[in-house]
Specification:
Elements lengths: L11 E5 L2 H4 L19 H9 L22 H15 L3 E5 L2 H4 L10 H16 L3 E7 L5 H7 L6 H16 L6 E5 L9 H5 L9 H26 L4 E7 L3 E3 L4 H24 L4 H9 L10 H7 L4 E5 L4 E3 L33 H15 L3 E5 L17 H20 L3 E7 L19 E3 L11 E3 L1 H11 L6
Parallel strand pairs: 1-2, 1-10, 2-3, 3-4, 4-5, 5-7, 6-8, 7-9, 9-10
Antiparallel strand pairs: 11-12
The protein binds 6-O-phosphono-beta-D-galactopyranose (BGP).
Protein name: 6-phospho-beta-glucosidase
Keywords: Glycosidase, Hydrolase
InterPro entries: GH, GH_1_N_CS, Glyco_hydro_1, Glyco_hydro_1_AS
């Protein structure tokens, strides 16, 4: 299919991953334990993420830990990078595991073995002409900081993060041009464990803890942004948020108003602080109405103002439909955010509603509001893949999903949005963040690894691999 949009020649096509979901080698090179290392897979993980009261006390006899071996990128990165290069990737989004650099999070000096590993990965990428796009913290907080300090609830963690961020910004200043601070920072509003490093306890004032944790992250992020600009003025550093446009279920003004409020809270609260450098008025009112008293120290607001990001990295998987009052039956199952079922949309096998037009809406909304370049750093379809007798995987459903989203993003470019690039999520099959499963696959590259931990870890090219290669080679014209 021919696309009418001509993507810019310097458009950053590629794929996205995160250290904890792909590296494995969880105790190699002096690495410490991070949050993902202690989360079991399947239903237990879903329960831990959804319900309050998790304490990171895990029964090691009862559970297996899918992120421990993951897909063994730690040992197989050369082979994987060669496959990315074969597809024509211009960029590769990855994250640095905090626990490889500071295993317990609070050491004074970085771990050389960890630093050397990423040197090797960046060198390998450059050998193939691929630029790394690096997330400094992607759901990988050291467990020690969770246990000893209560995660991001503690202000002290700002100092530890600053030390870590400076260590990697210094070390890789000549190797990395594109950075992001915290992955999906607004996920803390709905699922604090992964990004804020704590679970809400029964009876705890959720927004007091979450807003305070986010405030600490805003300050920490702003400090990293400022430092990044200092060590390499050529580098660009962004925030990373989940963006899901929120539709009103119908034209009832109550529902429209509710949807707008939800959209501002979920999509703009973090973006406004990190891109515009100040808390927006609606957030102040929201926090006041929730009875939240933020502890803001002298200098914090100046730090936030000085540490504005250069671009907005965002993930887009789904839109959300809202109604002020909803019954249990109306609720959308599976969508990570609450909301009601949208009768016009189909959903993935995990209930994530598929909405390519929503991506165009999201991009226009964001660009109208912020006027800074955007970068789609995650988008994709989690699906069950079937390996045929001849070893092939005919993932036409994935091709269709990506084609429709790339087309929508082309339309948004025609609308005038400044888009830096597109890295589809899980370009190689990896462990799912929300379920810890291998069977929820996103990749162009199939990895022989299964939910029970079995598999040869062998890599093979899916049908979508050849399709994406063609898309990149034609600058998005041949979809
Ligand atoms: C985002 C995370 C990723 C990734 C993706 C898909 O929220 O940033 O880490 O995993 O979603 O989600 P899942 O793996 O749960 O299907």
């Amino acid at each position: 299919m021919t696309n009418t949009t001509v993507f810019p020649k310097d458009f950053l096509w590629g794929g996205a991953t995160a250290a904890n979901q792909m590296e494995g080698g969880f105790h190699e090179g002096n690495k410490g334990l991070n949050i993902a290392d202690v989360l079991p897979g399947g239903k237990q993980r879903l329960r831990i993420l959804a319900e309050p009261g998790f304490n990171f006390d895990i029964d090691t006899d009862k559970y297996t830990y899918p992120n421990h071996e993951a897909i063994d990128f730690y040992h197989r990165y050369k082979e994987d990078i060669a496959l990315f290069a074969e597809m024509g990737f211009k960029v590769f989004r990855m994250s640095i595991a905090w626990t490889r650099i500071f295993p317990q999070g609070n050491e004074l000096e970085p771990n050389e073995e960890g630093l050397a590993f990423y040197d090797r990965v960046f060198d390998e990428l450059h050998k193939h002409g691929i630029e790394p796009v690096v997330t400094i913290s992607h759901y990988e907080m050291p467990v020690n900081l969770v246990k000893e300090y209560g995660g991001w609830k503690s202000r002290e963690v700002i100092t530890f993060f600053e030390r870590y961020a400076k260590a990697v910004l210094d070390r890789y200043k000549d190797k990395v041009k594109y950075w992001m601070t915290f992955n999906e920072i607004n996920s803390g509003l709905v699922m604090p464990i992964m990004s804020l490093g704590f679970s809400i306890q029964p009876g705890e004032h959720k927004y007091q803890s979450v807003a305070q944790g986010l405030h600490h992250q805003f300050v920490a992020s702003a400090k990293a942004v400022e430092y990044c600009h200092e060590v390499n003025p050529e580098a660009q550093i962004g925030c990373m948020i989940i963006y899901a446009p929120v539709y009103a279920f119908d034209s009832n003004p109550e529902n429209v108003f509710y949807a707008n409020q939800e959209a501002r809270l979920f999509n703009n609260y973090c973006g406004d602080v990190m891109v515009r450098g100040a808390y927006p008025a609606f957030a102040k009112r929201f926090l006041k109405e929730q009875g939240v008293e933020l502890e803001i120290e002298e200098g914090d607001l100046e730090t936030i103002q000085k540490g504005k990001v250069d671009y907005i990295g965002f993930s887009y998987y789904m839109s959300r439909t809202e109604k002020a009052e909803k019954t249990e039956e109306e609720k959308a199952q599976g969508n990570m955010m609450s909301g009601v079922k949208n009768p016009f949309l189909q959903a993935s096998d995990w209930g994530w509603e598929i909405d390519p037009l929503g991506l165009r809406i999201a991009m226009n909304d964001m660009y109208d509001r912020y006027q800074v370049p955007l970068f789609i750093v995650e988008n994709g379809l989690g699906a069950y893949d079937k390996v045929e007798a001849d070893g092939s995987v005919n993932d036409d459903y994935r091709i269709e999903y990506l084609r429709n989203h790339i087309q929508a993003m082309g339309e948004a470019i025609e609308d005038g949005v400044d888009l830096m690039g597109y890295t589809s999520w899980g370009c190689i099959d990896l462990v799912s963040a929300s379920t810890g499963e291998y069977s929820k696959r996103y990749g162009f590259i199939y990895v022989d690894k299964h939910d029970d931990g079995s598999g040869t870890l062998e890599r093979s090219r899916k049908k979508s691999f050849h399709w994406y290669k063609k898309v990149i080679a034609s600058d998005g014209a041949d979809l």
